[in-house]
Amino acid sequence: MVYAYSEENVMPTMELDEVDQQILEALHENSRISYTDLAKKIGLSRIAVQQRISTLIEEGVIERFTVVINPAKVGIQVSAFFNVDIEPRFLDEVAEKLSKEPPVTSLYHMSGPSTLHMHGVFRNMHEMENFLLQTLYAMPGIVRVDSQLLLRRYKSRMGMKL
């Protein structure tokens, strides 16, 4: 999903009460928790919890339920961050193409010295080099690419906590 923050494109917000916040906190800890167990945890009926979660999904508060994979366990040895400077007229085209690339895990249009901030994961340095040479550098409007390799991950979280 693309988030465009501007006064013209303000997304309506949903008022979250304390129960909604408890549900979100519990789902953030374990999104596979059953409605029954979640209902017991927060003191509601299973049907009430199910309805509230459905509303949170319909209102876009919950975008999706997902799995977080440990990269090292599946052979991903290189994690890198990239600052990519792009000619303004190519920004949307490049962002669209990069967002479809499997190694790209996150992509942001940033203020400051770089146009795009990107994170990617690769099996090894050779795979990262091929991505740079064959994919990124081949895109129109790329002016400069700065990359930093991740040495150690101290914290990584999908989504946000309230």
Question: Any overview of this molecule?
Answer:
Residues 16-77 form the HTH asnC-type domain. This protein is of the alpha+beta class and 162 residues long. The protein folds into two domains: 18-59, Winged helix-like DNA-binding domain superfamily/Winged helix DNA-binding domain (Arc Repressor Mutant, subunit A, Orthogonal Bundle), CATH 1.10.10.10; 71-149, Lrp/AsnC effector binding domain/regulation of amino acid metabolism (RAM) domain (Alpha-Beta Plaits, 2-Layer Sandwich), CATH 3.30.70.920. 33% of the residues lie in helices and 19% in strands. The chain has five helices and four strands. It has helices spanning 18-29, 35-42, 46-58, 91-99, 125-136; strands at residues 78-86, 104-109, 116-122, 142-149. The chain has a four-stranded antiparallel β-sheet with strand order 2-3-1-4. Helix 2 packs across helix 3 (46-58). The longest helix has 13 residues, at 46-58. The protein is elongated. It starts with 17 loop residues before the first helix and ends in a 13-residue tail after the last strand. The mean pLDDT is 90.
